[in-house]
Design brief:
This protein has 11 helices and 16 strands. The protein is α/β, with parallel strands linked by helices. The strands form 4 sheets. A 7-stranded mixed beta sheet has the order 6-5-4-7-10-15-16, sandwiched between helices. Strands 11-8-9-14 form a 4-stranded mixed beta sheet, covered by helices on one side. Strands 1-2-3 form a 3-stranded antiparallel beta sheet. A hairpin with a 4-residue loop joins strand 8 and strand 9.
Amino acid sequence: MFKTVEWKNNAVVLIDQTVLPDKEVYKTYRDYKSVAEAIKKMVVRGAPAIGVTGAFGVALGALKIKTNDSKKFRKEFGVIARHIASARPTAVNLCWGVERMTKIADENCDSSVPELKKLLIEEARKIHAEDIEINKRMGKHGGALLKNNSTVLTHCNAGALATAGYGTALGVIRGAIEAGKKISVFADETRPFLQGARLTAWELKKDNIDVTLITDNMAGHIMKKGHIDAVVVGADRIASNGDTANKIGTYTVALLAKEHKIPFYVAAPLSTIDMRIQNGEQIPIEERDSKEVTHLKGKQIAPAGVKVKNPAFDVTPNKLITGIITEKGVVRRPFKAGLKALFKK
C-alpha cells in the first residue's frame, strides 16, 4: 500500500502526486522550506494531507534550529510556523495542523530545546495517526448512508492520497464496501489538475473498486440517465453555517444533484470545519498558475497570451448539501447548530 506522507529518519517523505499515475515516486524533504514548496506545488494535496504534512514540516523546521537558547528557539519557531501556514490559503487544515504544533510549543515553553523538539515530533506523528483513525470512523458513518448496489459520483480526489490514509469521500465508499455493500464509482476527471483522472481512478483501481472515469461536463448527462445514486465529495474548508469550499466544479455538481434529486454528501473531519467564519463568502479562494489551464503535461493546448481565470476552489452553499459526514457522525440541517454541537461531544 502506498503512503501519502511519512516521517522517516528525521525527514518528511511524500508520494509525488504530480507524476501519478505514470510513476509512483517518493520524495524526501529535509528542511521546512522545501516542505512548504511541496505543498504549494501540489506534490501533496488534499486538506487533511496538507494538514499532516504541515505539522511534519513544522517538526522538521524545529529539529533543524541550531540553538539551545529557548527564546531564540521560539523566535525561529514562529518564523517556521508562519511560513508553513502560508503555503496554501483555502484549506483550513493546514493552519489547524500548524496551530496544534504551536500549542505544544506554548504549553511546554519551560522544557529544554532538545525535549521540546522531541515533543513536537511526537505531536506531528500523533496528528498523522489520528487522521487515519478519523477517516475510518468517518467511513463507517458515511458508508451507512449508501445503499447496496449503489453508484456514487465523486469530484476531485478525497481518498488516501488526500489524507494520511484511507480517505474522506473515498473513505465513505471504502466503509460501505467493508460493510459488505457493492458500490460502483463514477469519477469526474476534475479539470484543470485532473485529480479525478490521475489520482482517484488510480487509487480505486489499486483497491479493485469498480470505477468509471468521466469528463466533468458529462456529470449532468450521467445523472439524467439515472446512473448516479449519491454524490460524495471532500472539503477544504467548511464555514460554521455549512457552506463548503471544495475543488472547483463541486458547486456545479451540487446544482446538478439538486436538479436530479440525488443526495449530495460532504465528507470531512472536524479539522476542516472553521467555526470562526460565518459563511462561504469569507473563505479565501486560491488562484493558481494559468499554465494549469493552458498547458497539459508541459504542452501548450491554448492560444498563447489568452487570458485565464484559474480559481482552485468554489463554494457550495449549504442549501445544496444533504449531509456533512464527520468522524462524530452525520450533520443535517440546521447545519449551524449541528456543526456547533459536534465540538461539544
